Amino acid sequence: MSPAPTPIDTAPYDAVLLLSFGGPEKPEDVLPFLQNVTRGRGIPDERLKEVGEHYYSFGGKSPINDQNRALLTALRESFDEIGLDLPIYWGNRNWAPYLTGTMREMAADGVRRAVVIVTSAYPSYSGCRQYRENLEDAAREVPDAPRIDKLRHYANHPGFVSSFVESTAESLSRLPDGSAIAYVTHSIPAAMNATSGPDGNGYVDWHNDVAAEITAELERRTGQTRRTDLVYCSRSGPPQVPWLEPDVNDHLDVLAAEGQPGVAVVPIGFVSDHMEVIYDLDTEAAKTAEKLGLPMARAATPGTGEKFVTMLRDLVVERAAAERGEQPDRPCAGKLGPAWDDCRHDCCPPLRRPKEAV
């Protein structure tokens, strides 16, 4: 029997929180879930039911909660491998287990300070500040709520980038030589991107930097250059409000018209196979590509892959060391450098949403 690992210093933290978006788990959950997501935006239930068809086509269940359960298990195993003795809690923004309830549980267990892993890798209001606002709102509802620090953005961490290098290489192996790459992320309002990150345009800049790193490594391995683009999925909201473009389906039209031999669709904006991946890409985009006669292969998301899980574990250790006043290594790929630990008060401000935007 191998000896138990020497415990890792986790001070000042006594817990880890996994914080995610949440999703319905059965058909009767779909409408209440969408009402939660769009609360305060004045969207009629009739419109929400239309959006809900995406979920009903998969049995009324989003994959995200099961993916988070699998990630919790993988994190626990990874923590135990190195003697990282911290309990891991899980809360959601929009569905059970709700964040406020989880924070109550943490407080009842005596947790005083925790570090949070958010299942969103890039800077933007919806991907960062809104989660921080959720944490603040929950803390106001919970007596003796723990202090919670957020991990730095990890999209340009080598563990995240290398996961996509491998999955992109695998998807290209299923396509004709010279196939293009379409890096895909969730579209957001152009105005949200303009104010994302401390200096603006952070959402697009970070995605472009990650895409460039993946492309450069694939070119180094193969000696081939190919067309690459950053494109978007899941646009919502009224048509008069500009969102980031082009849409992945429109882009597939362009590639087919150019005579591209195929396309690897790489969802670099997602940590696992969310509904946007299995519906927008595996269903809608795949149907578009088939109609166009354009060979398409979708690259896998990091999910519970070893590189991704190890990265999250290492970021917990890194942040704990930084909070103790040490100078830990901050692994980073790309040109933008490692992200900040603490966001500026004016970073990623919220937008005023028009009514009936979904």
Automatic annotation (TrEMBL):
One of its GO terms (molecular function) is lyase activity. Pfam families: Ferrochelatase (PF00762). It is found in: Cytoplasm. It comes from the Bacteria. Belongs to the ferrochelatase family. PANTHER family: FERROCHELATASE, FERROCHELATASE, MITOCHONDRIAL. Involved in coproporphyrin-dependent heme b biosynthesis. Catalyzes the insertion of ferrous iron into coproporphyrin III to form Fe-coproporphyrin III. This is Coproporphyrin III ferrochelatase. It comes from Kribbella aluminosa.
